[in-house]
Design a protein that fits this description.
Structural class: alpha+beta
Distance between the termini: 52 Å
Radius of gyration: 28 Å
Order of helices and strands: HEHEEEEEEHEEEEEEEEHEEEHHEHEHE
Shape: globular
Helix content: 25-40%
Number of domains: 2
Largest sheet: 7 strands, mixed
Strand content: 15-25%
Number of helices: 8
Length: about 525
């Protein structure tokens, strides 16, 4: 961005003595004038500095956004085309998980090559996890290193080079590249000045921390992070299919998610949440699970290009269904089991609701500032999740407004609060009516994991509603100056009425498979 300095010129013009003997400025007046000029110059300088700081921070935010978006896409696509993940654990893997052991001797040589490549650039490569690809003899690894600035951390990819069409280099030559730069470092007491980690030789350099920090999984999580350590923590499921970035620190502080951070010379700090979930799904074999409606997150919201859109998402209790179970146990929690709710202490690596939340938060984080949106969750009237994001309760809100993006994400984070049976049922009609009554909306993303409990008139839902409900909204669309394109996403089971609604409004229908591979054998 080109910056043009502001020149403030203050000219003090003398006042000549008139023929009548009147004098100009005396000493008091001159002092007052000089003081006023100094104040004006000082105020202008302060404004210029503030403007420069604001512009600099906007540049940093844009850089972090671009960095995150591209890196997440690469990691997600590679994990999703893999057979399974490789992680290091603090216990010897069981026989059926031996093939997921990152410390296996089969991978030692290729991991050493990655570390050697990092050393050539005077950096380090500390493995986080690996992805076993069907077309490669050696896995692709993702590891921790230093950021390009040297003041933070980065995630690097090490493995066979990839062509632009997605094919791997047949020679499997190892290459090393940064995919996520500027991983933040934890500060003292959440966000106070940096603590110092010291040893007998003085303060420990970040390079040493990056090289020696422990990313060994205990159960389904890597260890919590402390001051000056990278602001990332990983979670997986019992079958080593999932990688999820979670809150890196203990509960109760001001940090709630992994994050990126840039700190300028004048200590101006720019942070950006890092939301990421991906799962290996190359193996398409099916094994029946406890929940017939299991569904993983994918790209729920595709082809997002509108600048005036609404998101209407299912907040009903069935969204508490556990998609992937973890390896450990924790506090009691209630889940939807397909036909009823049940309590369990078993660790759930990912629920439907968490999957939706992550997808929405990632999308909201990446939307351009000039995008106007509305967020609404639907369940049953009077229940917890039948509500709107307050900022968009009356009209679409510009996501670039001061505090709007953070407020939207905070609203999304509340959708899994409390116990699931208090979230409510499935009643999308109020949200749909609201969307079609808004002449400023041109696109609606409508997501649901089940059939409505009732029809639009509170009658029993039946097959006739599969055509009558879409027809009603299609007729409303015909009377609008700007038609709404309704993109529907059906989770867990196919929905003919949602498909018809999308077709009748020139939108897209997306069905997310209700089954997922739970078998770890290949």
């Amino acid at each position: 961005m080109n910056r043009h300095p502001i020149n403030n010129k203050i000219k003090l013009q003398s006042c000549r003595v008139s023929k009548q003997g009147q004098r100009g400025f005396g000493l008091p007046e001159a002092l007052v004038a000089a003081s006023a000029g100094a104040v004006l110059i000082g105020a202008s300088t302060l404004a210029l500095r503030s403007t420069g700081s604001l512009i600099n921070k906007m540049d940093q935010k844009a850089s972090l956004q671009q960095n995150t978006t591209g890196g997440k896409r690469l990691m997600r696509s590679e994990i999703e085309r893999s057979l399974h993940l490789l992680i290091a654990t603090d216990t010897t893997p069981s026989e059926n998980l031996a093939h997921t052991d990152l410390n296996h001797t089969d991978y030692k040589a290729s991991l050493n090559q990655c570390k050697a490549l990092a050393q050539q650039s005077n950096k380090v490569f500390n493995p986080l996890f690996g992805a076993k690809m069907a077309e490669l003899n050696q896995p692709v690894y993702y590891g921790l290193s230093l950021s390009s600035s040297g003041h933070g951390y980065a995630i690097q990819r090490c493995g066979s080079m990839m062509h632009l069409d997605g094919r791997y280099n047949e020679t499997e030559t190892q290459s090393l590249a940064t995919v996520i730069d500027d991983i933040g470092r934890i500060r003292c007491d959440s966000d106070k000045p940096e603590c110092k980690i010291t040893s007998s030789k003085g303060e420990v350099p970040l390079k040493n921390i990056a090289a020696n920090i422990n990313f060994t999984f205990s159960g389904d999580k890597t260890p919590e992070r402390i001051s000056r350590e990278p602001a990332i923590r990983l979670m997986t499921d019992e079958n080593r299919k999932l990688i999820r970035f979670i809150d890196p620190t203990k509960e109760g502080d001001n940090i709630e998610t992994s994050f990126l951070k840039v700190e300028s010379i004048n200590k101006e700090i720019t942070t950006r949440p890092f939301y990421f979930i991906a799962y290996a799904r190359a193996d398409k074999r099916i094994e029946n699970g406890e929940d017939e409606g299991s569904v993983l997150n994918g790209l729920f919201f595709r082809n997002v290009s509108s600048k005036r859109m609404r998101f209407l998402v299912d907040g009903s209790g069935s969204m508490s269904a556990c998609i992937l179970w973890g390896s450990g146990y924790g506090n009691w929690k209630v889940y939807w089991g397909g036909r009823y709710y049940f309590w369990s202490r078993r660790s759930c690596a990912l629920t439907r609701m968490e999957s939706l939340q992550n997808e929405l938060k990632s999308l909201i984080s990446d939307l351009p500032d000039d995008t106007h949106i509305s967020l609404r969750s639907f369940s049953s009237a009077g229940y917890q999740n039948h509500r709107s994001w307050e900022d968009s309760a009356r009209a679409l809100t510009k996501i670039g407004n001061d505090g709007a993006r953070d407020s939207a994400i905070a609203f999304i984070n509340t959708l899994d609060d409390g116990v699931a049976y208090r979230w409510g049922g499935t009643s999308p009609w109020e949200g749909l009516d609201e969307a079609f009554a808004d002449e400023g909306t041109d696109t609606l993303y409508f997501l649901s994991d089940g059939e409505p409990n009732y029809d639009r008139n509170r009658g029993q839902w039946n097959t006739a509603d599969h055509t009558s409900a879409p027809a009603y909204y299609a007729d409303l669309n015909d009377g609008r100056d700007i038609s709404i394109k309704v993109n529907t996403i059906a989770l867990g089971s196919k929905s003919s009425w949602m498909e018809t609604l999308a077709t009748r409004t020139t939108g897209d229908y997306l069905y997310i498979d209700k089954k997922y591979v739970l078998s770890a054998s290949q």
